[in-house]
Amino acid sequence: IKDKCSRLLVDGGIRFPIILSIKDAPVWLIKSDNANPTKVQAFTHAIMFGVMAACPVARLTYTIVDPENRGNSIAPFFDAKKKLPELFGEKLYINKEDIAAKISKLNEKIENILQDKLGTQYDTVFDYARANPDYQVNAELLVLYDFPKGFDERTLAELRNVLRNGSKCGIYALISYLPDVDANLSREYQQSLQTI
């Protein structure tokens, strides 16, 4: 069995996904001191596998923001990315401008779903889909590595809206947070960061 499961072994133990439901999924915030980034990445991978197990792959998109490792934080998913490129959306986001554009695009998607689908009649996109069988929920997991790198004050404010309203619209977040030791951050930026 050990030979057949060798890809699942991590430090001699079998790695399993974290079992979860996407309907009421929380915002995952993992605060790290960067002492063991491999373990943090393994935990994020378990959550990603769990979301994949909870949602049809054809209805799931991972949005990966990885400014420090430039996409290498999701190395175990490289084969899946080659075979199912649509699972990973348009691209991996590594620079500030692309990150800001993607967060803005997520906000537009949220606003459209809130206004056009949910209104005051439905609490979540799942409730809407239940009442409208022709509509299929497309889930999206926003995975932020090395957060808050790549975020300015405006993008932080837009991210707050994604975190506040995204789960109603099938957009979820997984954040690997590295407290920034840069003393040059503005007070407003630090305050915005505290609200995340």
3D structure, described in words:
- There is one protein chain.
- This protein is an alpha/beta fold and 196 residues long.
- 39% of the residues lie in helices and 15% in strands.
- The longest helix is centred in the middle third of the chain and has 23 residues, at 96-118.
- The chain is globular.
In brief:
With 196 residues, the protein is of the alpha/beta class.
Outline the fold blueprint:
Elements: E1 9-10, E2 13-14, E3 28-31, H1 37-54, E4 60-65, H2 78-83, H3 96-118, H4 125-131, E5 139-147, H5 153-165, E6 171-177, H6 187-195
Parallel strand pairs: 3-6, 4-5, 5-6
Antiparallel strand pairs: 1-2
Characteristic terms for this protein:
alpha/beta, two-stranded antiparallel sheet, 39% helix, 6 helices, 196 residues, four-stranded parallel β-sheet
What average pLDDT do the residues reach?
86
The percent of residues in helical segments reads: 25-40%
Give the class from helix and strand content and strand pairing. Answer: alpha/beta
Secondary structure tally: strands: 6
State the shape: globular
- Spatial strand sequence of the major β-sheet: 3-6-5-4
Instruction: Please describe the biggest sheet, giving its number of strands, its sense, and whether it closes into a barrel.
Output: 4 strands, parallel
